[in-house]
Amino acid sequence: MELPDPRLKGKFPEEEMQIMAYLAKGCLLLDPDARPTMREIVQILSTISPDTSRQINMPVNLFQVTK
After folding, report:
1. What is the pLDDT of residue 34?
2. How far is the C-alpha of 65 from the C-alpha of 49, rounded, in Å?
3. Contacts of 11 (CB under 8 A, 6+ apart)
4. Cα separation of 29 and 6, whole Å?
5. Which tens digits make up the pLDDT trace of 21-67?
6. Residue 16: exposed, middle, or buried by beta-carbon count in 10 A (0-12, 13-18, 19+)?
7. Separation CA 7–CA 20 (nearest Å)
8. Partner of 40 for a Cys bridge, out of 17, 36, 49, 62, CB 3.0 to 4.6 A?
9. What's the pLDDT at 51?
């Protein structure tokens, strides 16, 4: 698995990618008590603005669900 997805071709906000990687790492911790709560996840995700992603002409929005 590559992070970030090579299909993004480098066109993504670096800070948003770092936030998403941080969240993913936290959610995968073996100790359930060490994982972030849903409240914490929502708070962190709320710092990412879909409008910011659109302003730099991203080919894929980080909020977009892919199949």
Report:
1. 96
2. 16
3. 56, 57, 58, 59
4. 25
5. 899 999 999 999 999 999 999 999 888 866 654 454 544 454 444 44
6. buried
7. 17
8. 36
9. 60
